[in-house]
Design a protein that fits this description.
The complex is a heterodimer of chains A (246) and B (575). By secondary structure, chain A is α+β, with helices and mostly antiparallel strands. Chain A has helices at residues 31-41, 104-112, 128-137, 145-149, 151-154, 164-175, 185-189, 202-206, 213-229, 232-241, and strands at 3-12, 15-24, 61-64, 67-70, 85-88, 95-97, 100-101. Among the domains of chain B are: 237-348, Alpha-Beta Complex (Flavocytochrome C3, Chain A, domain 1), CATH 3.90.700; 427-552, Fumarate reductase/succinate dehydrogenase flavoprotein-like, C-terminal domain (Methane Monooxygenase Hydroxylase, Chain G, domain 1, Up-down Bundle), CATH 1.20.58. Chain B starts with a strand and ends with a helix.
Chain lengths: 246, 575
């Protein structure tokens, strides 16, 4: 039987190292299968997060051969198997143990986003073409791969100033909800730090749900913020009229 | 004992899927102090995997639909073993619960006139399932998650409850550990709502996530609550079969709801033989048995399944209405379902049985202990209709939240005590595997249990097989009492599995003992040696499991009597 060499990062906040394992290869096998094999046969205490193993829950994010991916969705036969497959924890968040990182920051930030706020007398009539924009963003499985790959968070660690692509599409989803009444532009400019994003589209590339994060969410949000705060004519108008919801 | 942290709440909800979140939201709304404890990160619970839709008689598409027809369909789907009151409340309240989700921000697919869209599903008379493509569960859990985090509850993520503690007969606490650090934590509480979902990980081929280890049923059993109807395990007719890596992953019933056809290797639409009237949209128990029979009789597909084909609906339609299925098959199996058929075979999906609860309050037989969702029994009888699970979570999640908040309120100044002896016993049980110098790997024992449950207590059952299964479970219980753990308590999945395994062994034994006792075939319980309904004897009783002197006791209790006006609805044609 063919064998694949896996090199997994083992360690915690005090440091660690790669450890190599040999795993028998089966047809259609994914990286998470190999990790499970290692747990059951070599190291029972190997830490990994996973839930559904069907690419629906977004728990098993890792960096496979240096690329941020879901381990449950990455088939081994799509990787070069003449050399070892490396699996590392996602780099942007602090390591807890092995492949598990502390992603609690995302949950804290998420809580600060002003929630869905319909009008009191809403009739609840919405048409398919109106809900489709929001539906795209609601496909998000919160795997945080976009947060992981975003250089503002990954390389510059601006977690205090920038909420990251996942949270921006959360805001986009609310802002584009046909029946929402809140205006989150000030939040976008200040707390969300949307100005930091310089549209390199790395987030869109790694999204396992194929959400057009940059084109459909971040750029339209940037435009709204720019129109309101940086267009002199609009600025003057709003001085007199108050900020309209777009 | 070692130091542990303590938190105090009126209501502790265990499990943060649809039922747990809905319960926590309701209890918070009632003014209770709520702690929501979950084994995974928030939003990862099994509800996220639900695909096809949530059943509610909104009558947006088929205007003749009403709660009575939904009630009628549910009782027939459950082969009359349902708790009638639960089925009634469910049918009556589901529409409001679905609309409420919309008011909290959910974006369901729409009809042309701007209402919530509904689709057909097996066993439902009318188009009844509100949905978002084939990712309805994700939509639900995000909506509830968003509502929940702004409702004032405390969320304890990646925390596993291992023991419930009582003051006399009443619930007074929940003990467990943080998955990250392995440190212990005690929740002092007046009430516990169990919303831990199902048991699928006791089986090898399952659509369920790792969390589904029967924790809640086991916790309730250990605390003295009754479990009912545990023999009724739903094998979803359509799980993936190939490649081996994805065996058991769900293929949503929405494929059949949208017109998918089942055929065998000879190209025959075999459902004509088993249910000519409803064909592919027959109830899940019937379709699962049909596929199983076709394969066992040598008419299966190359990898041992049936063909399920939706390609005749056209590529655009399939990609729009079943996008997850399209990607799932493309990426995992390299099959383009807009051009070629899928291969499917039954997969362990859901348990109809569970903790016995009062229909109105969701209270169990232990004061202060409540249960909702899949962990509770009664609502679905002997077979659950697709789509009735998501609505069940909402209706009874809310009722459990109400029931627990009210109970806690009535106890207001009643200081409950924590039994220190029990607490220390619980902690010792958890640390023991580290002290064992010799012992087995928990993963090996788990795999053996999964093999045994599939082999002995699967789709078709006989007295001999079930008895062999019970013997095997006893052997596995011994093996599981002597496990050895490597490493430290810090995020150690091997250690976590030791306790999960004990829960799985309890529910497996309960399933096996109920399956042996019920000498008839009804819904998802198919006895080859008793192939017919026995309405006179078994149609009148629930199976009941309880703990007596440390042992599992099996018995029956009479079904609750259905009122005359509801009986008429069930017996009428109702269309």
């Amino acid at each position: 039987m063919a064998v694949v060499k896996m090199r997994l990062y083992r360690g915690d906040s005090n440091g660690g190292a790669e450890k190599e394992y040999e795993v028998p290869l089966e047809e259609g096998m994914v990286v998470l299968d190999a990790i499970h094999f290692i747990q059951a046969n070599y190291d029972g205490d190997l830490a990994v997060r996973w839930n559904c193993k069907a690419a629906k829950c977004g728990s098993c994010s890792a960096e496979i051969n240096g690329m941020p991916k879901l381990t449950c969705k990455t088939r081994l036969d799509t990787l070069p198997l003449d050399k070892p497959v490396t699996v590392y924890p996602i780099k942007t968040f602090p390591i807890i143990k092995d492949l598990v990182t502390d992603v609690s920051w995302n949950y804290k930030v998420r809580k600060t986003i002003p929630p869905f706020t319909p009008a009191k007398d809403t009739k609840w009539v919405m048409y398919q073409e109106d809900v489709e924009r929001g539906q795209e963003f609601r496909k998000c499985i919160e795997c945080f791969l976009c947060q992981d790959v975003c250089h503002i968070l990954r390389n510059h660690d601006k977690k205090n100033e920038f909420i990251g692509p996942r949270m921006l599409i959360k805001i986009a989803e609310l802002e584009m909800h046909p029946l929402d009444t809140l205006d989150r532009k000030e939040f976008l400019r200040d707390q969300a730090g949307i100005g930091y994003c310089n549209i390199t589209k790395c987030c869109t590339e790694v999204c396992p749900e194929h959400i057009h994060i940059t084109d459909n969410a971040i750029i339209p949000l940037k435009e709204r913020v720019a129109d309101t705060y940086f267009d002199p004519l609009q600025w003057l108008l709003e001085k007199f009229k108050g900020s309209p919801k777009q | 004992m070692e130091k542990y942290e303590t938190h105090t709440h009126d209501v502790i909800v265990i499990g943060a899927g649809g039922a747990g979140l809905r319960a926590a939201i309701e209890a918070s709304a009632q003014g209770a102090s709520v702690g929501l404890v979950c084994k995974s990160l928030l939003g990862k619970a099994h509800t996220v995997m639900a695909e096809g839709g949530v059943a509610a008689a909104l009558a947006n598409v088929d205007t003749k639909d009403d709660w009575k027809t939904h009630f009628h369909d549910t009782m027939h789907g459950g082969k009359m073993l349902n708790n009638w009151r639960m089925a009634q409340l469910h049918a009556q309240e589901a529409p409001d619960r679905v609309k409420e989700l919309e008011h909290w921000g959910a974006l369901f697919d729409r009809t042309k006139d701007g209402k919530i869209m509904q689709r057909a599903f097996g066993g439902h008379t009318w188009k009844r399932l509100a949905h978002v493509g084939d990712r309805t569960g994700l939509e639900m859990i995000r909506t509830l998650q968003d509502r929940g985090i702004h409702s004032g509850m405390e969320v304890y993520m990646e925390c596993t409850i291992t023991h419930l503690l009582k003051d006399g007969e009443r619930i007074s606490g929940a003990f467990g550990y943080w998955r990250e650090s392995g440190r212990f934590v005690l929740f002092k509480t007046k009430t516990v709502i169990i919303a831990t979902g199902g048991i699928g990980k006791a089986y090898k081929v399952t659509s369920n996530s790792w969390e589904y280890t029967g924790d809640g049923q086991a916790l309730a059993y250990e605390a003295g609550a009754d479990l009912i109807d545990m023999e009724f395990v739903q094998f979803h007719p359509t799980g993936m079969v190939w490649p081996p890596s994805v065996r058991g992953i769900l293929v949503t019933e929405a494929v059949r709801g949208e017109g998918g056809l089942l055929t065998n290797r000879n190209g025959e639409r075999f459902m004509e033989k088993y249910d000519p009237e409803r064909m592919e949209l027959s109830t899940r128990d019937v379709v699962a048995r049909s596929i199983y029979t076709e394969v066992m009789e040598g008419r299966g597909s190359p990898h041992g399944g049936a063909y399920l084909d939706i390609s005749h609906r056209g590529a655009d339609y399939v990609k729009k209405k079943l996008p997850s299925m399209y990607h799932q098959f493309m990426e995992f199996a390299e099959i383009d379902i807009t051009k070629e058929p899928m291969e499917v075979f039954p997969t362990t999906h859901y348990i109809m049985g569970g903790i016995r609860v009062d229909a109105d309050t969701a209270g169990s037989t232990v004061p202060g202990l409540f249960a909702a969702g899949e962990a509770a029994g009664g609502m679905h009888g002997a077979n659950r209709l697709g789509g009735n699970s998501l609505s069940d979570l909402l209706v009874f999640g809310r009722r459990a939240g109400l029931g627990a908040a009210q109970y806690a309120n009535e106890l207001r100044d009643n200081a409950l005590k924590i039994d220190d002896v029990e607490l220390e016993k619980a902690a010792r049980e958890m640390t023991r595997p580290f002290e064992n110098a010799e012992g087995e790997n928990p993963y090996t024992v788990h795999q053996a249990l999964q093999e045994a449950m599939g082999a002995y207590i699967g789709v078709f059952r006989t007295r001999e097989k079930i008895s062999d299964g019970i013997e095997e479970i006893q052997v596995l219980k011994d093996r599981a009492s002597q496990l050895r753990i490597e490493g430290s308590r810090m995020f150690n999945p091997g250690w976590h599995l030791c306790k999960d395994l004990k829960s799985m062994l309890i529910v497996s034994e309960a399933i096996a003992r109920c399956a042996l006792q019920r000498e008839e075939s009804r819904g998802a319980h198919s006895r080859v040696d008793f192939p017919k309904y026995d309405d006179e004897k078994w149609g009148r009783v629930n199976s009941v499991i309880s703990k007596e002197n440390g042992n599992m006791k099996i018995g029956t209790s009479p079904l609750p009597q259905i009122p005359e006006e509801l009986r008429k609805i069930v017996e009428g044609g109702h269309k």
